[in-house]
Amino acid sequence: MRAVMWTDCLQFFVLFGGILLGLILFMQAVGWEDFLRIASSGGRFKPFYPFDPGFFSLDPGVRISFYSGVMGVTVAFLSRYGADQVIVQRYLSARGIEEARRGIWLNAVAAFLALSFLAAFGALVYVQAVQHGELQGVTFTQLPLPQRKALALREFIQAIKMLPAGVFGLVISGLLAATMSSIDSGINACSSSWGQ
Question: What contacts 24+ positions apart, CB below 8 Å, involve 139-144?
Fold first, then answer.
């Protein structure tokens, strides 16, 4: 368990470092003004800018609202942090209740930061796609879903290839680290359960 936890810790720093370095370098290449202008005109900052009043609607017909988001995240996190063998195993390996509580709060802060940085990274990839003419004359959301996924993946790869030598590898290593983190924790949890 100790080995899995230290591996997860190192993988987190590779993932987080890759995202952070990518954000810094992309922002230097794109510039704040272009980033804000292109992302805003493409609707990447919705529902916050321009503010969408439907975001706080109580109408159940609205597909994504603040309230549906809170309910969805609550259900997802309750199941993940209350019943997932991988997470429960981490609670049980803590020295005490206080250490487990600190771990949960640290995880919440780290997850919020990582997801915020990933959202910004995605907006930067969108800006790169617009700047390179991939999305001229078409709104990204108007494309069929398979075409959107293919374009997003292609633009992501093209965008990170523009980073300086070594950073491309760090970002890919970060993505693989995230995948490995889930796999090694899951294998360890399943092995522990099977052995019982």
Answer: 139/42, 139/43, 140/42, 141/43
Residue 176 burial (C-beta neighbours within 10 Å; 0-12, 13-18, 19+): middle
Two tokens, residue 190: 């399943």
How high is the pLDDT of residue 49?
A: 65
Q: Report the alpha-carbon distance of residue 146 to residue 92 in Å, rounded.
A: 42
For residue 101, how many C-alpha atoms fall within 13 Å in the half-sphere facing its CB?
Answer: 3
φ, ψ for residue 84 (rounded to 5)? -70, 125
**Prediction pTM value:** 0.67
How much is the mean pLDDT over the chain?
A: 77
- 166: nearest Cα among 154, 155, 174: 174
What span, in angstroms and rounded, lies between the C-alpha atoms of 115 and 16? 10
DSSP, res 34: H
